């Protein structure tokens, strides 16, 4: 109903509006690790009944711990949250206080001893065992004990406290090291700009870094992408998973998310009239090669291509090939090479970093050039037909991986089967 207009990324209007929007959205942001809120409530209940024995939790505390436990077990049974949930168990197993408590419980003590005996016995028969396998066995045993209800409230609460403490330590370390991470990434980006690979300026990189906030998050409280990181364009925030441990892994994921932040944008503004007041708003219609409204998955277009490019750029910047988005990258390489003529990677890269320009007669010349090349190499409308094919052949919740795999098969055999 409202009047629509384009907004230039470089304009003061965009920068100002973005600041306002970020402030507004920040209020609703939630970033505490799993169990944090529950522990807060438990602490205040105990404070009210001063001197209460933590070994005899009252009914309210029992209820809180029971529902937290159910939630964690649910996360452990779900393939998309399993790694983050298992991490909480791994942290407990690595903590001497937790191990000491297990030793005090005869039933658990027996269970853990049995598990490691069986493990040692089978180790004699198989030589492929790794050194951390013993720890894996213990994590597995803890998981089973949790499922069977053998973990007391006291022990479960200790698990949550260990997780909370570790998170706080990691956040502190991350904040301390962030300037170093960013400076390392800046150096690598600068050399790729100088080599002519990245069609951006160092000023743009600095601007994006200055308007972005960085933090770690618990994977159970955030939905990460395959890289264990996330860029939220409206908030101007980058999150990475708390369980990324080495500086290298952290910098690599930050690089991927920063590529998303550096990607070109198309912004659609709207004027609406509410009770006589004129309200101006804007939406990111495109970032990088991703089109659509982030909040509405049905509207998404070329998400696979955007990730393939983002990860390809990450590989170029960090100087090695990571395993993330391997199928998406493979499909991009096939798209480049299986048509009538080879499409240069630089054509994709130029389109990725291109901002919609009000002053350029073609608005998005690099995007138009890319589409022209794909149409020439295949058939008019091929890229969108490929994207539709991927969406139609994807299973719910699998991050479109199944559709991408099917598209790889078709490009390897006969791309003409993709209707356009
Ligand atoms: Zn990504």
Write up what this structure looks like.
This protein is α+β, with helices and mostly antiparallel strands and 420 residues long. Among the domains are: 36-166, no CATH class; 283-420, no CATH class. The protein has helices at residues 12-26, 36-48, 59-77, 82-93, 96-104, 106-125, 133-147, 153-194, 202-210, 247-262, 303-318, 326-337, 345-353, 365-377, 382-392, 401-413, and strands at 3-7, 213-217, 229-232, 237-241, 265-274, 277-287, 290-291. The strands form two sheets. A four-stranded antiparallel β-sheet has the order 1-5-6-7. A three-stranded mixed β-sheet has the order 2-4-3. β3 and β4 form a beta hairpin. α2 packs antiparallel against α3 (59-77) and α15 (382-392) crosses α16. Mean pLDDT is 89; it is low at 127-131. The protein binds zinc ion (ZN). Residues 225, 227, 256, 260, 307, 310 line the site of zinc ion.
Task: Give the cofactors and ligands.
Answer: zinc ion
**The biggest beta sheet, please?**
4 strands, antiparallel
Uncertain segments are 127-131
Strand content: 5-15%
Please state the average pLDDT score: 89
Give, in spatial order, the strands making up the sheet with the most strands. Answer: 1-5-6-7
Q: Strand-and-helix sequence, N→C?
A: EHHHHHHHHHEEEHEEEHHHHHH
Q: What percentage of residues falls in helices of 4 or more residues?
A: 55-70%
Broad shape: globular
Whole-number radius of gyration?
A: 25 Å
Number of strands: 7
How does the helix and strand content classify structurally? alpha+beta
Ends apart, CA distance between termini: 32 Å
Number of helices: 16
């Amino acid at each position: 109903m409202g009047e629509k207009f384009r907004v230039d990324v470089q304009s003061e209007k965009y920068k100002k509006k973005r600041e306002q929007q970020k402030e507004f959205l920040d209020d609703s942001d939630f970033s505490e690790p799993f169990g944090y809120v529950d522990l807060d409530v438990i602490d205040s209940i105990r404070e009210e009944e001063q001197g209460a024995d933590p070994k005899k939790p009252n009914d309210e505390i029992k209820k809180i711990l029971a529902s937290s436990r159910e939630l964690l077990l649910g996360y452990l049974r779900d393939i998309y949250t399993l790694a983050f949930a298992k991490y909480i168990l791994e942290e407990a197993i690595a903590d001497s206080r937790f191990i000491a408590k297990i030793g005090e419980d005869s039933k658990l003590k027996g269970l853990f001893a049995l598990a490691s005996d069986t493990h040692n016995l089978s180790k004699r028969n198989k030589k492929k065992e790794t050194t951390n396998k013993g720890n894996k066995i213990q994590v597995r045993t803890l998981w089973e004990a949790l499922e069977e209800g053998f973990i007391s409230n006291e022990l479960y609460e200790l698990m949550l406290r260990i997780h909370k403490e570790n998170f706080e330590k990691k956040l502190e370390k991350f904040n301390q090291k962030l300037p170093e991470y960013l400076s390392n990434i800046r150096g690598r980006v600068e050399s790729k700009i100088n080599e002519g690979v990245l069609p951006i300026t160092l000023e743009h990189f600095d601007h994006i870094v200055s308007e972005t906030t960085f933090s770690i998050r618990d994977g159970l409280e955030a939905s990460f992408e395959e890289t264990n990181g996330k860029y939220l364009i409206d908030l101007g925030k980058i999150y990475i998973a708390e369980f990324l441990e080495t500086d290298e892994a952290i910098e690599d994921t930050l690089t991927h998310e920063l590529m998303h932040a550096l990607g070109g944008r198309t912004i659609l503004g709207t004027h609406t009239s509410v009770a006589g007041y004129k309200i101006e708003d804007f939406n990111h219609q495109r970032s990088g090669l991703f089109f659509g409204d982030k909040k509405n998955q049905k509207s998404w277009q070329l998400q696979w291509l955007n990730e393939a490019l983002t990860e390809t750029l990450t590989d170029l910047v960090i100087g090695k090939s990571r395993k993330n988005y391997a199928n998406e990258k493979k499909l991009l390489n096939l798209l480049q090479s299986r048509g009538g003529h080879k499409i240069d990677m630089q054509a994709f890269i130029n389109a990725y970093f291109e901002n919609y320009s009000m002053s350029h007669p073609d608005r998005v010349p690099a995007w138009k050039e890319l589409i022209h090349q794909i149409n020439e190499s295949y058939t008019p409308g091929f890229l969108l037909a490929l994207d539709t094919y991927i969406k139609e052949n994807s299973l719910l919740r699998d991050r479109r991986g199944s559709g991408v795999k099917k598209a790889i098969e078709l490009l390897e055999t006969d791309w003409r089967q993709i209707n356009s």
